[in-house]
User: Which sequence fits this backbone?
């Protein structure tokens, strides 16, 4: 099963997006900082294609003095293990230093990456999408994990890219 890894700094909405993609209605996102979530991997089927999705943020503490290092390490593991990376950024905060740091790791890795701009909940946030071109990872893909807006479009793109990468023994 091809593996898609959701990466990004804390609070961009990785876990919410994971739940949205997997289609689990029961929210397992916890607003409390530092809460460990145990369901970080699941599979879904879309247009006849099965894919595995991993939420790397599920392994991270939300607040920690070395959070940047921990996030960076998760991204490096994801780059090694996944067939496709979903790099999640936040329309409401814009680009941060950690985003830039992670983007450069992903660029250097040559791993196929989709740049997902989360929290585009309504039209007013559409104006924030363009700035993410500056990360150099191609066209920003807007979604709203909370409302589910355009999550189907994202799944279409994921399948398109998964089918374009050679199959691996897993
Ligand atoms: P993670 O740390 O990257 O896994 O982020 P979470 O999924 O825990 O989400 C962090 C916060 O952002 C939570 O308060 C979520 O409710 C909120 N959030 C996630 N997705 C969206 C979205 O699409 N729109 C808005 N407005 N908030 C969101």
Assistant:
């Amino acid at each position: 099963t091809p593996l898609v890894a959701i990466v990004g700094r804390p609070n961009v909405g990785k876990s919410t997006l994971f739940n949205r993609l997997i289609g689990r209605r029961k929210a397992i996102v916890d607003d409390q900082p530092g809460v460990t979530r145990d369901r970080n991997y699941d599979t879904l089927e879309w247009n006849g294609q099965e894919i595995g999705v991993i939420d790397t943020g599920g392994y991270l503490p939300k607040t920690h003095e070395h959070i940047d290092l921990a996030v960076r390490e998760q991204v490096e593991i994801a780059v090694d293990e996944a067939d496709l990376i979903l790099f999640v950024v936040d329309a409401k905060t814009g680009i941060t230093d950690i985003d830039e740091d992670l983007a450069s790791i992903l660029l250097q890795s040559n791993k196929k990456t989709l740049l997902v701009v989360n929290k585009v909940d309504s039209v007013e946030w559409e104006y924030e999408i363009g700035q993410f071109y500056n990360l150099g990872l191609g066209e920003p893909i807007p979604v709203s994990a909370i409302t589910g807006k355009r999550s189907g479009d994202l799944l279409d793109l994921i399948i398109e890219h998964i089918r374009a990468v050679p199959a691996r023994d897993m």
